[in-house]
Amino acid sequence: MAPLTQTSAAAIARLRAYRCPPSIYSSLPLSRRSAVLLLLFADRHGNLRVLLTLRASNMSSYAGQVSLPGGKADTLNESPFETARREAQEEIGLPPDYLPSPYRLEHLCELPSHLAVTELGVRPCVAFLHTEGSINASSSSSTPSPSNLDSSKNPGATDAVTGESLIPNLNATEVAAVFSCPFHRFISSITEQTQVESPIKYQGQWNKWNGVQWRMHNFFIPKTHLGTTKRKEGDSSTVGSVETSIEESSYKVWGLTARILIDSARIAYNEDPEFEFMDGIGEEAMLKRLWDRGRLKSERQQGAKMQRENVEAERKQVRKDIETEEREMKRNKL
Q: What is the pTM of this model?
């Protein structure tokens, strides 16, 4: 396997050095805690890719949507990373503790929390899947990478996601497919010379509420040329079948997942997106605001959701409050 490119190695170093500001997450009751795993790995050219899943159509929340592996905390003693690892094991079969040689999972950092429409605080946990020599430039090119293991079972895929020897099973009750795409594409349309995949299309728009601008992001990832692991048609059991998608349609990445990917890529590559975006990482201020107002009580009805427009309204109100505070601070300095 080729070592990480200089750009990719620097991105991993920045994520490893990132220190998350104080978070409201540890104050939330158990019923409000959840975490997701943003799993990075190197392709055969040393560029970073991120693992994404397509949720099953029968899920009670976010059915049929692209997401990061993750879910709700089991206990108050469970760390966000432990929650994310446990859920990744349940959803895509990523071993929770021991990984077979030559793999090693490094927990790089945690990002500020977000608010989901299901009234949960979501803590993103970033990890890097090492293989022998993925950082060391002297590594042997014969070392298998997570993007080309068992390639014979997935002919035609340019950079298939981790092979069956590492992620053997998809939980068919929760996940319809797992795929990967270039991590840098979530802030830039620039394509590395070694990548031959179709470009990821981006659409964004500004919404205005109560005098405050709010940015919505949508990424469309072509299924063609992606190494996609999915359950076979009509199979309702947990399976590990590998197929290559040849559909011309795209996976849509938007909402919370898009925001988390943009946040993490901004930190990793130390650059702003080429498209318009809002400053700030995470939504800690909004969570704190809801917490102070008693909106995040421990009692939570099964399946309870905030209306999406209410979530957006809260986000925009927090943004307006922050802008008001900044204006007051500037006025006091004069």
A: 0.77
